[in-house]
Amino acid sequence: MSRSLLLAFGWALALLPAACHSQGSGEEGSQPASWATKLSSAKPAAASAVYTFSLSEQASENERAAALMQACQQQATHILHFCGIEKSHSHSPVAVKLYASIEEKGLEMENTQPVQVLWQKPALAIVNSPYFGKAQLGPQNAVLLRRLLGKPATMLLEDGLSVYFNPQWQFKGHQHWAGRLLYQGNLPPLQELLAAKNPQAASPLVYRAAAASFTHYLLEQWGRDAFLKRYADWVPGPAELPQLESSWHRWLQPQAKVPPEQSAQLPYLKGFNFAHEGYSIFNGYGSGYAAEALEKQRRLGANAVAIVPYSYMRNPQRPSPFPIMRRAGTETDEGVIRDALMAQELGMKVVLKPQIWLGGGHWPGDIDMQTEADWAAFFQHYYRWIRHYALLAEIYEIDMLCVGVEFSKATQQQPQRWIELIQKLRGIYQGPMTYAANWGAEFEALSFWPHLDYIGLDCYYPLSTSSQPSDAVLKQAFAEKLEVAKRIALRANRPFLFTEIGFTSTPMPWQSPHKDGRGKPYNGQTQKRCYDICMQVLSESGDWQQGVLWWKFPSDLSEGGNKHTGFTPNNKPAEKSLPLWFSKLP
């Protein structure tokens, strides 16, 4: 669409004087002090009575940008019609700046969210790239709704109505995803949706789908006029909630269809765990550096990549919510999505492998609740967190989901809870699932392998205690560990995958492969030796094993090289042999 058509398109759109200028909940980000200066330096693109669009320095005026601007205008038109606004009213339009990438927006705005509302002005900052566009729209509608209808007593109505007006939200619309959540009982309780102070902190995907669906339900039950009359002041009472929730679910039930079965078969996966190695926006997931790192992995012969977003837990014996990373520079959803889609464009399969980080020298294997009540709370927190990634993986058609990593005590003590978790997640995500078991007791004793599609091993078995073992000794030791894995895979009748395997660049990495290389001398040749031996054994094994994902490859290619004692093979001797070894694998 040309600029002139865009200008003409918005001529009838209008805004009433602002009904409420109060600050929003803040989940979309606050306004940087320099926003006005940054906006004034942008390139004008289009204008209407509702919006004035401008382009960032890197953004270009193309068909994709025109389609995004048109979608914003169309949704605004529907909102005005919904509110009964037929005549033009004088009010300053909302400034909208389009960015070419989440990195460009993040470096300027310190926020990488694809759609960001800056409530103080108000204004909007939106990413328009091959990976983000109309499917993310919805939050921008809150600005117009706030001006026309004021701030409601029940914020779920504003949040839900914002998404309701985007029929292409997350490609298939809110009703599709709310129905998917209702199937197998993954839709959050209504009381939880209404009561949460910042519900999107748990999962913006789950919350927005549910909020839009519930708002849609109220609109159909009450009618538009009654809905608008009740919008500002309506707060449901505790006695009203059970009936509301029950009738909402009955109304939504036709959308809760059994999802079509999908094949769990993938090609032999060969590649790396892709590590978010920078927290400065330009060097982590979603950055130009990360794009270069993905391209390098493909050149090395990788056909797969595991993307690893983290959350954290402070005390391994005390249950607590797992936050989804939102701060620019962390493993945000938008960074995960951009890199997953880019990897697929490069011809690689993507494994989404969310992990938990614990400080103080702890790891997930230390998580050990002391009461059944605490175990129940832990699994509820974990379910809410991993449910988010299951929905993200389904929306963006990610090739495999790893439902957990190295919870060695939690899996052995609470296997039934894991089975129930997996069953619920299958109502959301239809692709193949695995679990990344820690080497040793957890991997060898795990009881719920038959409930998964792939058997996953984080393999850090020691191969020798000697300071100078022969190649034959190392090869024999690895072959013996592989034979253990084979017995488990054949018993469960599932293909086997190395969800992690790795060695540091230190003098004797075969002794304790799981330990990092900090404080030790650098030796790149020993790392290469271990890679060569393991790859040789794998290339000679049968088709019962279906992949190897090395730990790890960095998002910032400056991580690695001479004197870097960590796990990455980047710019080290081990890297040079990888194309040959990858080519010898199936």
Query: In terms of per-residue confidence, which ranges show pLDDT below 50 for 5 or more consecutive residues?
Result: 1-30
Our count of domains comes out at: 3
The CATH homologous superfamily of the largest domain: Glycosidases
Instruction: Examine the coordinates and then state which fold CATH places here, giving the name of the CATH topology of the largest domain.
Output: TIM Barrel
Number of strands: 15
Assign a percent range to the helix content.
40-55%
Largest sheet: 8 strands, parallel, barrel
Question: Concise description?
Answer:
With 586 residues, this protein is α/β, with parallel strands linked by helices. It is built from 20 helices and 15 strands.
Describe this structure in words.
With 586 residues, the chain is an alpha/beta fold. The protein folds into three domains: 1-148, no CATH class; 152-258, no CATH class; 269-584, Alpha-Beta Barrel (TIM Barrel). Helices cover 40% and strands 14% of the residues. It has 20 helices and 15 strands. It has helices spanning 3-9, 35-40, 63-82, 102-109, 141-149, 155-164, 174-182, 190-195, 204-222, 224-230, 241-252, 288-299, 333-345, 372-395, 408-413, 415-426, 441-445, 471-492, 524-539, 573-584, and strands at residues 43-47, 51-55, 94-99, 115-118, 123-127, 269-275, 304-307, 310-313, 349-352, 355-358, 400-405, 433-438, 454-459, 496-501, 545-554. The strands form three sheets. The protein has an eight-stranded parallel beta barrel, surrounded by four helices. A five-stranded mixed β-sheet has the order 1-2-3-5-4. A hairpin with a 3-residue loop joins strand 1 and strand 2 (51-55). The longest helix is centred in the middle third of the chain and has 24 residues, at 372-395. The two termini are 47 Å apart.
